[in-house]
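Look over both lines:
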Amino acid sequence: MRMMHVIGSGRMGGAERFFIRLTGALAREGQEVITVTRPGSELNDHLDAGVEQLHVPMRGPWDLLSRLKLRKLMERHRPSIVQTYMGRATSVTRIHRSDVLHVARLGGYYRVDTYRHADCWVGNTRGICDYLIDQGLPSRSVFQIGNFVDRKSAVTQAHRTELRQRYGLCEDDRVIVAMGRLHRNKAFDVLLEAFSRLSIDTDGRRTVLLLLGDGPLRSTLGQQAVSLGVSDRVHMPGWQHDIAAHLQLADVFVCSSRHEPLGNVILEAWSEAVPVISTRAAGPSELIEDAETGHLVPVDDPDALAQAIAKLLAANPSEREALCSRARMVLDRKFSEAAIVGAYLDLYRRLRRIG
């Protein structure tokens, strides 16, 4: 099956990492996959060698030249499925052939009018799908398909040692990892507040925070760490491509979000057998069974978050391992590559039969 996947992002994030994983997995399944991205996008260097790369500027939703260029690419390559990700790519994708089906994939509670012209819609949580139907999209054309992450990665001891040296970590340091765009929705300000309320030492071991990501609040969060007196134990190295290696340093992963439609970062932490604490945002509340596959705390509550982190850091190894084991079973059952890729291929085949 020939398919075209279109995304208009310039920088990496959760949706972008999933785009890379899904297109590569589909190509490995023998599908003919064409990706359309912006020239110079950070994604381009990370796409699978098995996918064909094309580029369209996609400067914004009203970029008529990009809309025309994309239409010409579709006419030339004649995909049977065009799947778009997020608003920019969806806005510039207009299909004028009855034998080409437009699948719009949404990973958040976005303004639906931007997506209404698609033939069907994929939400990666039940909450997003319910929202799309509530906004007037036909329920028969709304499908829930989750995300998957890479299985536990082989990271060398030498690489882990290099990372520990880079961040000045001792072997017995307690490491908390968080990651995401440095934006208000991620509530890293609350995480810093919670971190400042933890004891500097836990069982005689220093506690350190690695905050991976970039965004508009980078400077503000850095200043907050200074004002809280924790800047010597907080590292903000920006986006890192070796996420698995960073997660393998972690004793605890924290998702502190105010708004989180799914929580790819939680799946990534589960994949690396890292116990997770998250706020009760919409997506994490669907993913995590409290005290079974992770721990949930209220949104915007630094005291509750600090208490949960301290408790998990102090837990005995068997408790932490049991938490990770149960999370891994959920990951394998619901969010494996085979399950998600199979669901997408089933959807494409169904749409082609109907179309």
